[in-house]
Every structure is written in C-alpha cells, then in structure tokens.
Amino acid sequence: MRIAVSSDMDEPVARLLVDELRGRGHTVLPHGALRAGDREDWAWSAESAARDVAEGRADQAVVCCWTGTGASIAANKVPGVRAALCVDAYSADGARTWNDANTLALSLRLTSGPLLREILDAWFAGGPSAEDDDRANVAHLEEIR
Q: Has 65 been annotated as catalytic?
C-alpha cells in the first residue's frame, strides 16, 4: 500500500512511524519535516499528504503534529479525505470501521513506540463496515458543505 506521511517536526516518533510502515511492506511518501525542501508547518504538510490520498497517489495517509489536532483539521479540509485523530487502538479500529477513515492523525507528543504499533495494528486490521447505517453516514459526509 502507498501511504503518504506528514509531520511538522522531525521527531523520533515520526521517524519510527516511517520505519514501522516500511517494515510492514508499505511504500511511504514523505511530506513536511520528513522530506527535505518541503514546508514543515502542520497545515501545509498535512494538506500535502491528504492531497496524495484525494488525488490517488496514495491509498491512505498518516498526518502528525504535536497534538494531532491541527494535522487532522487540515487533512479534513481536502475533499474526499476522512481523517481521524486516534490516541489508542480502539479509536483507530472505530475510525476504520464506522467512519471508513482513510487518513490517520497522530499526536507526536502522546504517541509512544508501543502505542504507535498498537494503533497501526488496529488501523490496518480494520476495514469499513458493511452495515447500511454506517455506509449512509459515510456517504452523507460528501453531502455536507
């Protein structure tokens, strides 16, 4: 899978994220502080990763900033992107299942190495629900303007 990854800071957890994704066999498309010459600010770097998803260059994205909030807000401004700020495995599983999230937002401050692995395990194990009400909610997101 091709995964766009952005971070506004070159933090150890951001580097671990890239290594972990590559170790799981994914192709990483880096943005922000993870790619030389990119604008590092959270709004710009998260937008770049989200646009990779929206425009088909990536299957999913992981966007990071200090709290994860700004990166998730920026990513969600890109049409077709459903970013979820996940602080644990349960929220990652729910985001994939009920929200069909295609972008994971992470906090550089709160996410430890072991927690990162748990979140990624849940994220990649999950998939969108086939339940009619869940599909209707996700479809309705496209109608909200």
A: yes
The token duo for 25 is 């066999």
Structural contact between residues 67 and 22, judged by C-beta atoms closer than 8 angstroms: no
Report how far residue 133's alpha carbon sits from residue 65's, in angstroms, rounded to the nearest whole number: 32
For residue 105, give both structure tokens: 């937002």
- Residue 145, pLDDT score: 78
Tokens encoding 1 = 């899978």
Question: Using an 8 Å Cβ cutoff, are 17 and 73 in contact?
Answer: no
Selected catalytic residue, list 49, 53, 54, 65: 65
Q: Which of 42, 11, 38, 14 is nearest to 28 (CA)?
A: 14
Q: Which pLDDT band, with edges at 50, 70 and 90, does 39 fall under? A: very high
What pLDDT does 33 receive?
98
- Where does residue 138 rank: exposed (0-12), middle (13-18), buried (19+ CB within 10 A)? middle
Q: What is the DSSP secondary-structure string of 113-133? A: HHHHHHHHHHHHH------HH
Q: What local confidence, expressed as pLDDT, does residue 142 receive?
A: 87
Q: Residue type for 21, please?
A: L
The 10s digit of each residue's pLDDT in 129-145 is: 999 999 999 999 989 87
